[in-house]
Amino acid sequence: MATVSVGNARPRRAQGRVVAITGACTYLGTELIKRLEEDRRYAKVLVLDVKAPAILAAGTTKARFFPIDLTQPTIDGDIATLLQREQVDTVVHGAFLSHPTHATEWAHEFEDVGTMHVMNACAAAGPARVVMVSTTMAYGAHPENPNFLDERAELRGHQDSRFINDKVRAEKQAARFAREHPHVQVATLRFAPILGPTINNLHTRFFSRVTAPVMAGHDPLMQFVHEQDAAWALKRAVDSDAVGPFNIVGKGVLPYTTVLALMGRVPVPLPFLLARSIAKALWATQIVSTAPSLLDYLLYVCVADGSRATRDLGFTARFSIKRTILDFVGASPEDGATDVASSFA
Amino acid sequence: MPPDDTDPIADDLGAPDASHAPDGDWPSMADDVYLGGDAELASGDSYDPYPAAGDTDEGAEQRELERRVDEGRTPVYPLDDRRRLPLPGLWRRWRAFAMRGRADMVDDFGRDPIATARWEWVLDFLYSKWFRTEVRGLEHVPAHGRAILIANHAGSLPYDSAMLLHAIRRDHPSRRDVRPLVEDAVFHLPWLGPLMNRIGGVRACPENAVRLLEKDELIAVFPEGVKGMSKLWRDRYRLQRFGRGGFVKLALKTGAPIIPVAVIGAEEALPLLGRVTWFAKSVGLPYVPVTPTFPWLGPAGLLPLPSKWKIAFGPPIDLAGEYGAAAAEDRLLVGRLAEQIRGQVQAMVDDLRR
After folding, report:
1. B287 lies in which domain range?
2. Domain spans of chain A?
3. B9, B29, B74 member nearest A14 (Cβ)
4. pLDDT in tens, A160-207
5. Do B27 and A40 count as a contact with CB atoms less than 8 A apart?
6. Chain A neighbors of B90, CB-CB under 8 A
7. Among partner residues B20, B35, B190, which is closest to A216 by beta-carbon distance?
8. What is the CATH number of domain A17-196+224-249+305-318?
9. B102 assigned to some structural domain
């Protein structure tokens, strides 16, 4: 049984729930709005973002847009007022960048300080449940990582990646909020890199290029989650009572070079030191927006264990990593790929 | 599963699914959602696991999802959004070319069955022709269930773990796979580390070992670690300290029997005359080995000399049955047991040399 009973009281309504979503324009935010629109247990959806997501124009009945810019200094008061006035019982905080940016100062204001504002607003308005979106990249790619990191593993981030470390700091704020407000259910979903035909993020942009750098002699295992699985997991987290961090991962792992081969990309082997210098130069000249520190994820394994989400959240990925990759590139399974079964026949 | 009337949140889309549990074998495609074909794209269907408004049936959500999974349907997207590259014919051919020699499914720890099969003949040549390996006591290795092989370690490259792995895969009636735990210094070596990983090696750390044993795998531990591999020629056959007894704790916690293994021959295959450390740190190696052939002959010097190898397996030792799982916290006992097993492996090595 997936639903867990939590010790604290649940003042949340069973019917007619009201959900507020920050970062509604992201893939996950938009998909969550779609799913909440279709679920009759939810009465109202507050869409908080700087611009209205396209789905609102398509005609929604429950969703209402409120322009909120998380980087504004007193926005926490505005959000708190809104949460109280609309009697929001669930806050979904998904306003995070899916790709590094050169505007690192702004990114810090948006992710780290923005999370502070959301948490302050939650502390003032007291919703019953807070769901936050995070990433398994926050564990960091380190040579001493075990093959599967579970939720108890430390979030070590990366020593000089602001993109990753802002997310680690946001998670720490959520954890502190959960400690200080034990009556509020706080769940954090750490998504493995999300791939899919429609989502646009760091990984889909990286893998959309014809060539991809390979750290010569290194071939870590990689893990992805399909965009539909990810959206389903987020919906389950909003429905559920489970608290704490959850790794949301797909089925199976593959070595990085096999991922590239399955996608039909051309690997460019580079020694790590050379690759880092090139990446730094490209980053400094703003030719690419992929931060050099992310090369560590091509050196060392950063794979998470999703069994806690299966146990407590009732989420099990429905797509294997192979299907996820093939769905991403739009190929059918017979399309030139080898198969274990046929090779041993 | 009956719907829970008191709590509508409790209606569950799917009970935690056994297919997700890491069950030791290759991930199965059978339970994967599969897009039936482009014919279905025309239906304009979208992912809709939730019932339409007005539907008051609590179980409808789950039934709808099950129906979609049964029918093998996935979300449908406009084809324009897909990330194919230009020149689809060339792309497809390149992909088929790139996938040669590698499988599109690996197990949880990264063993690739096609790469394994591809390297099989190399291992087999080394094992039977080059090293002319003699094996004794294979009957002590269980055909199934968890167990820990504890072996001595020598030779500057991990040829001994490859031979141990191949001995059981080739000569044991169960043909079961050994998962050797590989120390970091080797696991992160360029090319060698990933190769070890593809043919079954796993990075040595307690989390990985516990996970493997809980899946009832057979793991091989070399408690001497890098200290064992970097033994000089004059110290050959003299076992080094057995780590910090982590393997004893592992055996006590997981209830896996310990099977002592003695391997001789690795010492002579790459006799280590000296270790150069001042240069090695800058290239990320623990040391640069100096053997009669390396570095004088370049990379070819890392090929092993044709020494005669012998591998002996001892009777299993059931530590957990004797001391109980709680004994893992008793540092003194763990240290004593580790030393006792080291003595046993040392005695087996001495016995093989006679």
Report:
1. 113-353
2. 17-196+224-249+305-318
3. B9
4. 888 999 999 999 999 999 999 999 999 999 999 999 888 888 998 888
5. no
6. none
7. B190
8. 3.40.50.720
9. no
Q: For chain B, how many structural domains are there in total? A: 2
| Mean pLDDT estimate for chain A | 88
pLDDT at residue B25 tops 50? no
B117 vs A contacts (CB less than 8 Å) = 343-344
Residues A260 and B247: their CA atoms lie apart, in Å, by 37
User: b or e along A283-313 (b: 16 or more beta carbons within 10 Å of the residue's beta carbon)?
Assistant: beeeebebbbbbbbbbbbbbbbbbbbbbbbb
Peptide bond into B295 cis (omega under 30): yes
> According to the model, what pLDDT value does residue A11 have?
59
DSSP structural state of residue B325: G
What's the ipTM?
Answer: 0.85
pLDDT tens string B223-234:
988 888 888 888
Beta-sheet strands, E only, within chain B? 134-136, 147-151, 178-182, 202-203, 218-221, 258-264, 274-276, 288-290, 310-313
Determine, yes or no, domain membership for B12: yes
Residues 194-253 of B with CB under 8 A from A: 194, 197-198, 202-203, 205, 207-208, 211
Residue B99 in domain? no
Residue pair A118/A93 in contact (Cβ under 8 Å)? The answer is yes
Cβ of A8: how many Cβ atoms within 10 Å? 13
B241-282 residue pLDDT tens: 888 889 999 999 999 999 999 999 988 888 888 888 777 777
Interchain proximity B9–A41, CB inside 8 Å = yes
Query: Average pLDDT, whole number, for chain B?
Result: 79
Report the distance separating Cα B94 and Cα B130, nearest Å.
37
